[in-house]
Amino acid sequence: MTTTMETSEASTAVQSQTMASRATEAARESGVRHLVSITDLDREGMLGIFHLADAFKEVAERPIPRVPALRGKTVATLFFEASTRTRLSFEAAAKRLSADVMSFSASTSSLEKGESLRDTIETIDAMGVDAMVVRHKSSGVPSQVRAWTKASVVNGGDGQHEHPTQALLDCYTIREALLERTPAGVAGPEDLRGMRIAIVGDVRHSRVARSDVLAMTALGAEVVLVGPRTLLPPSLEGWPVKATADLDGLLDSLDVVYLLRIQKERAQAALVPSMEEYHERFGLTRERAARLDERVLVMHPGPMNRGVEIAPEAADLPSSLITRQVKNGVLIRMAVLFHLLGAGGPLPAGAFGGIETGTTETSGAADA
Amino acid sequence: MARPGGRVFVARAQVMDTDEVSRALRRIAHEVIERNHGLGQVAVIGLQTGGVPLAERLVAVLREIEGVDVPLGTLDVAFYRDDIGLRPVLPEEVTSIPVDLTGATVVLVDDVLFTGRTVRAALDALADYGRARAVQLAVMVDRGHRELPIRPDYVGKNLPTRRDEVVDVTSEGVNIGELVAERSQR
């Protein structure tokens, strides 16, 4: 693969920031929108996605949970790395918007026959797709793919870099839980201001953590990273977060405990002594779960290792949002696809001569 | 009043004052009752956003006349529009339809009927909530320039307009005017 960009985490983070802002510039010029990094959206952009997701929540509750919003658009899901929930979530989202879905997985593709990533992307582009959802084990691939296609590119998780739709659905789920607690008649919180969130586990290798830190802090939350030093980023420079190895000292001050998945390979690589010891020190054990205030929200991006980062019972606590995260994932991905392909699509100059753009535009409030 | 593209609505003339809007609503209410032989099975649905306050007022007048509380819903048609991708389309508010519409007579309410494209989208959207027995359309102003074979059942006022004019319905009445670039106004 020509696009492998496995550099050290700190530099990847910095690099991704500048790449993302350049990409936003480029997107503005070309009119094609992408979601490669969570930084492609600012605070207002994220709140806009949440607003759309609220509208899609109503759609999801109907007997026929489908709207014709993206009829005639084609969404290709290109998963070069195994995934069940993210892929199914994107495909469900596209189908509920009436888009056509093309699906691709690396194991059954011409990649097996030695086709390069670029040739694969250009082939799929030539078939005419409007959006490509890309997951790849190497950081930076979705960013690179933008250069090879006219379609909107959505990052479905790349290496240790980012997973922006996961961060959006996480923040949306927290906001939803806060709004449900707000008594009727009182204006609920707009963002995550005042929330103290601990992200616990393998932060160093986690694209979920990277996107979550950026999204949560942009929305006003305070984020603390918790884990053994071997699994925390070597440097926090440029990151508005603190880090600690003392989960117990923190537990009483938290609003959200966000547990990351620990991969078994980490023990083999001697980054943690054993899964049992990790569970004792950093897992949400039965004892810690009992100590937690019932208002503290428990989250996990899945798939869970029950007994490692979370005790088997703790995942089923009433304050656990884990299944809610999955449910909201579809809404957020509907919102992202609609945002990229429908909501703000640029007006093609000169196209549709029959439609007077002036009158269509003014008809916003004055047309029935 | 700010509009997309940094343009503002500048009223040139008032075409209906508050009393005239109230009287038109009252007449429409009587027409709804007469046409449907009462209010059994009738549901009123306001189109976001201009139709919603009018729908609320219509329901209040119907209650006053017949002593019946008619189910009231709101509908945002953003996801059903046929110009998605041609211009920014965003839902204003979340749709709320509190009753099963199967078998109901739905009175759609909007402020201004123009090209008819919003109503077309609304008909598509309604079909996803059940098979209404009938759908009727009430608008405060019919300004012409239809692009689809759609006609209203109840009209507050027929108002001949130019395509580039803008009709604005508020609680203070109905005005006709133009959208003007914000800068040229100062």
Topology:
The complex is a heterodimer of chains A (368) and B (186).
Chain A: H1 9-30, H2 43-60, E1 74-79, H3 85-96, E2 100-105, H4 117-126, E3 131-136, H5 141-145, E4 152-158, H6 164-181, E5 196-200, H7 207-218, E6 222-226, E7 242-244, H8 247-250, E8 256-259, H9 265-268, H10 275-282, H11 286-291, E9 297-299, H12 322-343, H13 357-366
Parallel strand pairs in A: 1-2, 1-3, 3-4, 5-6, 5-8, 6-7, 8-9
Helix pairs in contact in A: 2-12, 3-12, 6-7, 6-12
Chain B: E1 2-3, E2 7-16, H1 18-35, E3 42-47, H2 51-66, E4 72-75, E5 105-113, H3 117-127, E6 134-142, E7 154-158, E8 166-170, E9 173-181, H4 182-185
Parallel strand pairs in B: 3-4, 3-5, 5-6, 6-7
Antiparallel strand pairs in B: 1-2, 2-9, 8-9
Write out key terms for the chains shown:
heterodimer; A: 368 residues; alpha/beta; Rossmann fold; 2 domains; 5-stranded parallel β-sheet; 4-stranded parallel β-sheet; 13 helices; 9 strands; 12% strand; disordered N terminus; disordered C terminus; B: 186 residues; 4-stranded antiparallel β-sheet; globular
- Rg from alpha-carbon coordinates of chain A: 21 Å
Average residue pLDDT of chain A: 84
The ordered string of helix (H) and strand (E) elements of chain B is EEHEHEEHEEEEH
Biggest beta sheet attributes of chain A: 5 strands, parallel
Give the CATH level 1 class of the largest domain in chain A: Alpha Beta
Name of the CATH class of chain B: Alpha Beta
Low-confidence parts of chain B lasting 5 or more residues at pLDDT below 50?
Answer: none
Protein architecture, described:
Chain A has 368 residues and is α/β, with parallel strands linked by helices. Chain A is 41% helix and 12% strand. In chain A, the strands form 2 sheets. Chain A has a 5-stranded parallel sheet, with helices on one face. In chain A, strand 1 (74-79), helix 3 (85-96) and strand 2 form a beta-alpha-beta unit. Chain A is globular and about 55 Å long. Chain A starts with 8 loop residues before the first helix and ends with a helix. Residues 1-29 and 345-368 of chain A have low confidence and may be disordered. Chain B has 186 residues and is an alpha/beta fold. Chain B has one domain (2-179): 3-Layer(aba) Sandwich (Rossmann fold), CATH 3.40.50. Chain B is 26% helix and 32% strand. Chain B contains 4 helices and 9 strands; from the N terminus they run E-E-H-E-H-E-E-H-E-E-E-E-H. In chain B, the strands form 2 sheets. In chain B, strands 4-3-5-6-7 form a 5-stranded parallel sheet. A 4-stranded antiparallel sheet of chain B has the order 1-2-9-8. In chain B, helix 1 (18-35) packs across helix 2 (51-66). Chain B is globular and about 50 Å long. The model of chain B has no long low-confidence stretch (mean pLDDT 89).
